[in-house]
Structures
1.
Amino acid sequence: MKIAIIGFGKMGREVDALAREQGEEVVRVFDVEPAVKPELLADVDVCIEFSTPDAVLGNIRAAIEAKRDIVVGTTGWYAHLPEIRKLVQHSGLLHSTNFSIGMNIFFRIVKRAAELMNNAKEYDPFIHEYHHKQKVDSPSGTALSLAKILVDNMERKQVILPGPPEGPIAADALHVSSTRAGTFAGTHIVGFDSEADLIELHHVAKNRRGFAMGAIAAARWLRGRKGVYTMDDVDL
């Protein structure tokens, strides 16, 4: 593949190194500036995008206009997804809050756990995540994806509470909390607490390589497909 990397922070650099190691061709690298323009993508097969919430929509639109596939790891733009779906006709777009193969398996484990817990009303679910102190968003997009899985599969939880509550929370609220410190690559905990016992499911990212591997695998899978996809569509 001829790859354009959009966003050259920690994740962009990891994707760049791994793509070259795997024999792919990185033909363009865009940092925050200058803005991506469609004409700069003429010799690109696929864009892998890990930029910022402020830049991501412009980058997506540039790839769509250039009729180039794009894999999007930046979060914070999903309110615009209906608009983007209408625009993507001649290329493919694959987005995810987390490209780690392990995390995407973890999503499926959590879904099954939520289904099992739906009738076990004595268990109260919660989510907590740890990330390095330089991470921009809080809670993480991955934590919110996990929260949506619980809310979609547990009838007694209807509302996601992303942050510190002001006093006791409602019975139908799912609390999602965060810690920002040190150099954590990412730890996500899904818990189910009762008076009798506590059940916790953990996913711990040891480094960013797993995310980069998943993003490159997603780019390969996307070749030749049209429309909008997520990692749920990718064969793991």
Note: Helices lie at 10-21, 56-65, 81-87, 101-117, 141-153, 209-222.
2.
Amino acid sequence: MQGKDSADRLTERLASLSEKVRQDHPDLTRLADAFVERLAAANAGASAPQVGDIFPDFVLPSMTGELVASRDLLRGPSVVCFLRGHWCPYCTTEADAIQEALPELETANVTVVLITPDRPAFAAQFAGGQSSIRVLCDIDNAFSFTLGLLAIMDEETVAWLKADGDDLPRYQGNDLWSVPIPATFVLGRGSIVTDRFIDPDYRRRMPISDLLEAVKKAAAS
């Protein structure tokens, strides 16, 4: 089954990426571990929509600047993913895995929405040329903030990213140096959350096999 294979590949890719970063940039791994520990200690993400909740309405701009309302977009089974940005290799790896699973997601008539704080010119990289994936821009991380998913980077991490050439102020259009905690919500009819995956450790993502199983459950709800 493609879903299981995709899940294994995604897990392997993320593990391989983490190991490469650990070997090539041990200082970044140290900063990431500290960042994750700080978020975990604060129980970050715990207040985000729970299973059984109605996912909040939103209006966000698309890659072309068109304002998209959730009530027009999420009319059936849906997957809503929050991604840190095109500059994050863990996010691009997850987006690639979702694109690979599109045939099964489309068969289930699932709407796939990726939400990122990137400005449209950068957010477009998440679409991968797939018109069935809607990429929306969360300006200034305002929506992720309302959901309890906002994470502020510490000064040492900001300094490391700047030295590495990652210019979040240019990517996001602000100097907040904030990112969403990566999260995946699976919604059934009426935008009711039927499953979710939230982990303060941005190096972990929802396995595609779990996503596909959750989508089947949402479609049946």
Note: Residues 2-220 form a domain with the Glutaredoxin fold (CATH 3.40.30.10).
3.
Amino acid sequence: MSLQSEIDRAVNFCKYPAIVLSLLAMEPLLKTYRRFWEIREQLSFDRSACFIGGVVLMILVWVFAGVRQNALSTLEHELTHVVFAWLTFHRVKGLEVNDDGSGRMVYVGKGNWLIALAPYFFPLAATGMLFFSVAYEYATKMPLPEWVLIGSGAAVGYNLCSFWQQLHPEQTDFAAAGWVTTFCFLPAANLFMFGMILSYATGGGRGFFGFFKILSYYAKHLLD
């Protein structure tokens, strides 16, 4: 049996533990978000204002401009499939994106549920901006400029709007991953991913590690 098949078996075997973990994680994640709201005054006002401004601006543009699924959002969607196909050692055979917003990615092998659900819990644009922000601060030893914070917020707003448009009952990726997996896994996975991005944008490294510290605290006291 090939390495690719072994990895698919391992990932698919972890599906139900991932479901249970996601359901258990919801309460600690929600409490972590609430705690961040309670300590918002300790976060950088300038960073938070620029980031949130970028989020709001992108959502307003998306809504009032009547943006619909297009080639750009489809490209990002399919590229996220590609990333997780590569991460699970699948060879990508082709990528197709059409002007009407349709598209597909073809890879070798049966695949797994993570590849199917990747675009719905891994915000590629926002995560890319997170990596860029960390690299920028590390390289320059300077606080993030306003344009990076606004860009990070805009990327989050873009991903939120794109996710919202892609969530519909006819979505074949959900059927491929399984409806139970989809409904149980995605809420916690999104709260976790966007929590990391939000905490770094508003609090830098201190906020980022604070997110994990608070989350681990509530996770430890889950059964108390």
Note: The chain has a mean pLDDT of 90.
4.
Amino acid sequence: MNDAPRITCARVTLRRLAMTDAAAIAAYRADPNVARYQSWETYSLAQAEELCRSQAAEVFGRPGSWFQLAIVRAGDDTLIGDCGLHFAADDPQQIEIGVTLSPSQQGRGLASEAVARILDLSFLTLNLHRVTARTDADNTKAAALFERLGFRREGLFRSCAMFKGVWCDELSFAMLEQEWRSNPSAGSAVINA
């Protein structure tokens, strides 16, 4: 698969970022509640435009790259978040994922729906072996999201990363292909390559 897929499900669609998404990305990424567990302190429109521009040129699945997919509401294409896929440089059978959702859209199961469809793409279309995710141990909402979808908590890494001037703990999660295939949530995405 050379181009980004379009993944359609009940309430959200995942697609390639577009330049028209920049203002919405800047708005939710600048929110302090979103930035708290991210690598940035603030997020400007210029940064969002650069993200969209760089992603327009990115090849989906390139080893060593992060590819951001827009999460939009099904029906009206309103951007509500983004999901990153990190394609490992040294192992094409594994990816790491991350998800960011606008605070106004949280608590509705939309992130769960989006990540479940990323798992469909990963395991049922790309035939990957393993998907991982890492989060700050204090980010209880992200940890609950991964556990709700059936990810295994593989470890707690104590004071493993200097993050915004403070040593932080990180949680590591993973899902294997056979685990997802037996999950009742598997297989409900329509994926157009």
Note: The first helix runs from residue 22 to 29.
